[in-house]
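Still learning. Any example?
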Amino acid sequence: MQEVQVQEQVKVKSVSRTQRSVRAIRQQLQAFSFTVPALVLLAIFLLYPIGYVIYLSFQRWNLLGTPQFIGLQNYATIFFRDSAFLQSVGVTIFFVILAVPAQVALGLLLAILIENEFRGRTFFRTVFFIPLVVSFVAAGITFQWMFSTTANPGIFPAILTSLGLKFPDWQTSNGIMAMVMVVIMNTWKATGFSMILYLAGLQSISPELYEAASIDGVGNAWQRFRYVSWPLLIPTTTLLIITNTIGSFQAFEPFYVMTNGGPAGATTTIVFYIYNNFATRTGVASAAATIFLIFVLAITVVQLVVSQRTQRGYY
């Protein structure tokens, strides 16, 4: 009799475990079902285009006819036969080196300046943020008009000419100055994003931390920033460096509107190179886009690893 009762108890326990397992699986499937629409959209608008571009990088095609498989010839072309691609890589890296530090540093400076209460703070916040909502096309056309060095000079070149000075001819001959002008416009346009994030980070720091630091001997404003604010702003800085780096690598409108890749290819970035070649050499442009994707992913991973190690050093 006791053995029968024990067997029934074991059966009841096994049944209850099975029911719990089935219930848990149903809950997981139900939770997963909510992500299906997002996964479908992700597959259609992200994964499929990436896969198709990688597929085209192994084909000879010009948007007409049937793609023809040619193996790694497109990659050999961009690395060993087409010097314009390697030039575009150098131009892109040069732009990122100039643009990212300028956006991050200026955004931090503006955030520090408008953090504390003072008369007109709301006005200055608005002024510093307005360029962010202006389109790159409008900003590029405005800067091109203001700094034009053509037969109809812009405002600033005309002022320098009246003073007996000459503004560098960035539109036709001076490639370095052309890049500097694009960086200036891009920094003016995008710094507001860095400022807003830094301002939010500064205002999230508890005043008690500053009070504790002053008790420990941290007196002036630089020491408060160096030992209290900056370590707590490292996550924000990491986010800004990554987002601004990716955005700078993908920059297209500033170059298209202000310089059209010139003079002599001095402002032709990788994205602009892909744009110029996609219609006539689709396979070559797709190979360049694939290399560009791998390069950006590698840069992002390196930045994340370095930032994590830096945070461990501070904390």
